[in-house]
């Protein structure tokens, strides 16, 4: 089930409080490479399962080192692979299927994108037949 819209900023700000990135949380700025995002969905879903987390997070617009909000130009709703939207294309490359949701928000007048990824359940999640961790 996707996060409640009212809690998106709280989830992002709580993730930023960690001194270092947690294994199931990844910060990015403007990475919009579809293959890399698909690999991260697989890796983060599998890692969340290993660390007994319900969800993994990938957050665009946060500096990787300082965790400061710097904003992003990444907009998942406009990204395409061929003629498919990014989220549909990624979902067709995953086996078994795993739920993931993109959420767009604004923090401190900066665009931020949260990708919520459900943990792997019955088997490791593979992207293009490779299971990442």
Can you give a write-up of this model?
- The chain is 25% helix and 28% strand.
- The radius of gyration is 14 Å and the shape is globular.
- It has 133 residues and is of the alpha+beta class.
- The two termini are 23 Å apart.
- It is built from three helices and nine strands, in the order H-E-H-E-E-E-H-E-E-E-E-E.
- The strands form three sheets. It has a four-stranded mixed sheet with strand order 1-2-7-6. A three-stranded antiparallel sheet has the order 5-8-9. The protein has a two-stranded antiparallel sheet with strand order 3-4.
- The chain has helices spanning 8-16, 34-50, 86-92; strands at residues 25-28, 55-60, 80-81, 84-85, 94-95, 100-107, 110-118, 126-127, 130-131.
The oligomeric status of these chains comes to single chain
Low-confidence stretches: none
Mean pLDDT: 94
* Helical content (DSSP H or I, runs of 4+): 10-25%
**Termini distance?**
23 Å
Radius of gyration: 14 Å
User: Number of DSSP strands?
Assistant: 9
For the largest beta-sheet, the strand count, sense and barrel status come to:
4 strands, mixed
Judged by helices, strands and strand pairing, the structural class is: alpha+beta
What overall geometry do the principal axes of the alpha carbons give? Answer: globular
Share of residues in strands: 25-35%
**How many separate helices?**
3
| Spatial sequence of strands, sheet with the most strands | 1-2-7-6
Helix-strand topology string: HEHEEEHEEEEE
């Amino acid at each position: 089930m996707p996060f409640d819209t009212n809690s998106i900023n709280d989830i992002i700000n709580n993730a930023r409080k960690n001194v270092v990135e947690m294994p199931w949380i990844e910060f990015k700025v403007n990475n919009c490479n579809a293959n890399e995002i698909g690999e991260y969905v697989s890796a983060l879903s599998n890692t969340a399962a290993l660390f007994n987390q319900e969800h993994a997070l990938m957050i665009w617009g946060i500096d990787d080192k300082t965790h400061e909000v710097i904003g992003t130009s990444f907009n998942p709703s406009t990204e395409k692979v061929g003629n498919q939207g990014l989220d549909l294309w990624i979902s067709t490359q995953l086996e078994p299927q795993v739920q993931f949701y993109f959420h767009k928000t604004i923090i401190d007048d900066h665009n931020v994108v949260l990708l919520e990824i459900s943990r792997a359940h019955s088997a490791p999640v593979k992207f293009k037949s490779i299971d990442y961790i």
